[in-house]
Every structure is written in C-alpha cells, then in structure tokens.
Amino acid sequence: ETGVTQSPTHLIKTRGQQVTLRCSSQSGHNTVSWYQQALGQGPQFIFQYYREEENGRGNFPPRFSGLQFPNYSSELNVNALELDDSALYLCASSHKGGSKVSDTQYFGPGTRLTVL
Amino acid sequence: DQQVKQNSPSLSVQEGRISILNCDYTNSMFDYFLWYKKYPAEGPTFLISISSIKDKNEDGRFTVFLNKSAKHLSLHIVPSQPGDSAVYFCAASRAFGNEKLTFGTGTRLTIIP
C-alpha cells in the first residue's frame, strides 16, 4: 500500500506568480484534503475534493483553487502569490462511501513554499 | 477564532514516565477528535482518535480521554520513549475523521533520556 506523496518538496516563487502543487492519494482512497501550515501554527483546512468536485472549503480566497483527477490525485493552484502564502502545504487522503470507510486522514510530507 | 486550543507550547518528560498532552475546544458541534504526531520535515502521522460517544480509547501506549462537558481531551503516553519526541497536534471534526479537520497549534514534547 503506497502512502500519500507530494511534489515538489520545496518551491521558491516571487510575489504575483502562480504555483501548482501536486498530491497522489494513498491507494484505495478517493478523497483528498489540502491544508496550509504556517510557521508555529497548526494546519488550516483549505478545501477537500471528493469524486472530482470540491466538497467543503475553509476560509481561503478564490485564488486558491484545486482539481481532482479520475485517479484521485489532486492539484492545488495558487494565483497572485502573496508573501503570507509562504507555508507548508499538506495534502491528506481518506476514503468516503462504499463498504470501506477511512475515518482518518493520512498526510503526505508536504511542499514547502517560499514567496519572496 | 481558535476553536481548538493547545495551551502548552512545550512539555518535557523523563523517559519511562507518563506524558500528558492537553487540548481544549470551544465548538460543541465537534464530534470526532484525533491526535497527530509530527516530526520535522515530515507530514503529520495519525496516532489515535476518539468519537464523542466514547470517553476513552486505548491503543498500546497511547490513550485518549474525552470530557465532553468540559470540552477537553487529553493524550496519555505511557511509558514515554525517546522516539516520542515530536510536535503533537490535536484535531477535531464535526462529523468523521475524513471531513474538515480543525487543528490546535501543537505541543512540542521532549523526552529526556
């Protein structure tokens, strides 16, 4: 059983640029959630994707958007980057529906984004 | 609005003794609670969870206690081992653990050999 993977590991961008982060969910999982963890803080929920549609969103502006693909992998896109977007971006996978339910979210190692 | 609070930023415990990490929440709609452990440069690792219909859940050295009336949960680690040194986050959900999680700010646990 493969775990959650994320790419890239680190990324440096400048203010105003756009970035795409990628996540592959754990095998057997169909749900992906994205979190932002600023320094010294706990992870904050950005949004969740289930069956290729957004299924809940946290308090983040529309310039944070995402996609989920038929193989359940996901992308997080951030437009018009701001200095405050510098953070660790975490992806977590779980499973909903059917006879197998995962009541737990399993996290990837994260992507460290630095905005200069 | 910090709905999940971990008021102790750090905790040091002697190896072999009990570690007790605390977490308070304000949202009475939270129904499911989880503890995660995080090492540097890694994502959070799931430790243990508890549903609001229970007041205790055990898994090996880890026990989570939930006091719904006080809106308080705690994680007990017995006996503490050096590998337990990490940042511990408590998280809460309004439904199941696969829904939106609201995290506390974490407690850094250091186990002293």
Q: Can you put this structure into words, describing what you see?
A:
The complex is a heterodimer of chains A (116) and B (113). With 116 residues, chain A is mainly beta. Chain A is built from no helices and eleven strands. In chain A, the strands form two sheets. In chain A, strands 2, 4, 5, 6, 9, 10 and 11 form a seven-stranded mixed sheet that branches. In chain B, the strands form two sheets. In chain B, strands 2, 4, 5, 9, 10 and 11 form a six-stranded mixed sheet that branches. Chain B has a five-stranded antiparallel sheet with strand order 1-3-8-7-6, with no helix packed on it. Chain B has strands at 4-5, 10-14, 19-25, 32-38, 45-51, 56-59, 62-67, 72-77, 86-93, 102-103, 107-112. Chain B is globular and about 40 Å long. Chain B is mostly beta strands and 113 residues long. The mean pLDDT of chain B is 94. Chain B is built from no helices and eleven strands. In chain B, strand 6 and strand 7 form a beta hairpin. Helix content of chain B is 0%, strand content 53%.
- Main interface pair? A-B, 29 and 25 residues
Which secondary-structure class do the elements of chain B indicate?
mainly beta
Oligomer description: heterodimer
Strand content of chain B: over 45%
How would you briefly describe this protein structure?
The complex is a heterodimer of chains A (116) and B (113). Chain A is mostly beta strands and 116 residues long.
Structural features:
heterodimer; A: 116 residues; mainly beta; seven-stranded mixed β-sheet; four-stranded antiparallel β-sheet; 11 strands; 53% strand; globular; B: 113 residues; six-stranded mixed β-sheet; five-stranded antiparallel β-sheet
Write the layout of secondary structure elements.
The complex is a heterodimer of chains A (116) and B (113).
Chain A: E1 5-7, E2 10-13, E3 19-24, E4 31-37, E5 44-50, E6 53-57, E7 64-68, E8 74-78, E9 87-95, E10 102-107, E11 111-115
Parallel strand pairs in A: 2-11
Antiparallel strand pairs in A: 1-3, 3-8, 4-5, 4-9, 5-6, 7-8, 9-10, 9-11
Chain B: E1 4-5, E2 10-14, E3 19-25, E4 32-38, E5 45-51, E6 56-59, E7 62-67, E8 72-77, E9 86-93, E10 102-103, E11 107-112
Parallel strand pairs in B: 2-11
Antiparallel strand pairs in B: 1-3, 3-8, 4-5, 4-9, 6-7, 7-8, 9-10, 9-11
